[in-house]
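Protein Record: Sequence and Backbone Structure Tokens
======================================================

Structure line: whole-number tokens from a learned vocabulary of local backbone shapes, matched to residues.

Purpose: to set a sequence beside its fold so the mapping can be learned.

___
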Amino acid sequence: MKPAVPSSERGTRVALIFALVAERLNTFYEHGQWLTEAQGATLAADWLARSQRSLPLAERRRLSALSDELARSIAGGLSREAGLHTAHELTEALDPNYRSELAEFFMAECERMLDAAGA
């Protein structure tokens, strides 16, 4: 059994999955293609570097894969118009001052996914 991840690290992982979901949905709806796991891991490294944090490549790839799974699930259940709205809403919610029930729902879903994957 893996040791528990400290809450601040866990929060970083949840936020990272959320940010990658937002980026994946934006890329899908704007360009009609999905980011690869490697592209997601690179975006994760960039995002972490902005806050002077880091995670090993294997962990970034794991979180990238989780974000891909969630983003595809979201897109699979929405019309294009609803998907565009959702992608926009999640991107706006990357600003900590922006409040959104939709974003809060998907943040909780990111947390659930991380827990289910064995954070």
Summary: The chain has one domain: 7-116. The chain has five helices and no strands.
